[in-house]
Structures are given as C-alpha cells and as structure tokens.
C-alpha cells in the first residue's frame, strides 16, 4: 500500500500556544483525505491543510514552499496525484500526504511546514508544544 513508503509523521517544534476552539471535527475530514481549516498560530490567522488517517491527523500550513501560494484550487478543494500525493494547484508540485515532503515539481526537496495538532473527543486542536493543550 502506498502509505508504507513514507516514514512516521514527525512534527518539528515551533512556537505555539493553546487554542480553545477545535479546528474541525474528524467527521469533516474524509479518512485518508484532506480538509482545510482556519487556525490562529503564533497570533496569526492561518489556512491549514489537515490530512486524516483513521484517528490520526497531520496538519500543515496551506502555503506552498515554491512560491507561497495556497495549495487548494478553491477553499478546501485539493488536487491529488494518482499515487495519492497532494498536488499544488498553482504549478503542480506534489507532496507526501504523510510528511509533507515535496516529491516532485519546482520545489523538490522542500517540505510543507507542519503544524502540531492533537485529536481529542473527535475534534482536532492545535497542540501546545510547551506541554499543555487547551483541552488538558
Ligand atoms: S506555488 Fe505551488 S508549485 Fe508553485
């Protein structure tokens, strides 16, 4: 299965803070699919890409490392390659759905910037990397 070719998700440590509201509920993200949500990260409102794998969710800023454009062609509407990679609607760069690494196109070798999230009670929250979360 194509997911086996990617390593486990590792989130880089970034400055973050607790957020009281959920970004989205799990039921609004198709399993093995993507959704878009807005969240406040380091004080800035950001568009985020969320990818669900069962009860696990990975998140990245919705900013392509090639030219800084959003990856979706319309809010929350993402293109996928035949192998399931996320494809930037602007110039076609493709990204691993597991770790956000660029797998082809004009920014090969770059990565989407990960955003740490946690799933609690069927909803996705930004994770507080200082050790506590809004739901603790
Ligand atoms: S902005 Fe995404 S490939 Fe150019």
Automatic annotation (TrEMBL):
Domain Rieske, first and last residues per copy: 21-126
Secretion signal span? none
Q: A Gene Ontology molecular-function term?
A: 2 iron, 2 sulfur cluster binding
Top-rank taxon, per record:
Bacteria
Give the matching SUPFAM superfamilies.
ISP domain
Query: Which PROSITE patterns would you find in this protein's record?
Result: RIESKE (PS51296)
| Keyword tags | 2Fe-2S, Iron, Iron-sulfur, Metal-binding
Question: TM segments?
Answer: none
Q: What is this protein called?
A: Rieske [2Fe-2S] domain-containing protein
Source species of the chain? Solilutibacter silvestris
């Amino acid at each position: 299965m194509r997911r086996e070719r990617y390593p486990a998700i590792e989130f880089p440590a970034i400055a973050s803070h607790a957020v009281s509201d959920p970004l989205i509920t799990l039921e609004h993200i198709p399993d093995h699919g993507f959704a878009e949500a807005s969240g406040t990260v380091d004080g800035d409102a950001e568009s985020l890409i969320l990818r669900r794998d069962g009860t696990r969710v990975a998140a990245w800023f919705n900013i392509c490392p090639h030219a800084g454009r959003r990856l979706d062609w319309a809010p929350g509407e993402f293109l996928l390659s035949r192998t399931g990679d996320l494809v930037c609607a602007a110039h076609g760069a493709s990204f691993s759905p597991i770790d956000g690494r660029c797998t082809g196109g004009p920014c090969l070798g770059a990565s989407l910037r990960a955003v740490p999230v946690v799933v609690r009670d069927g909803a996705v929250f930004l994770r507080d990397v200082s050790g506590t979360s809004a739901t603790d």
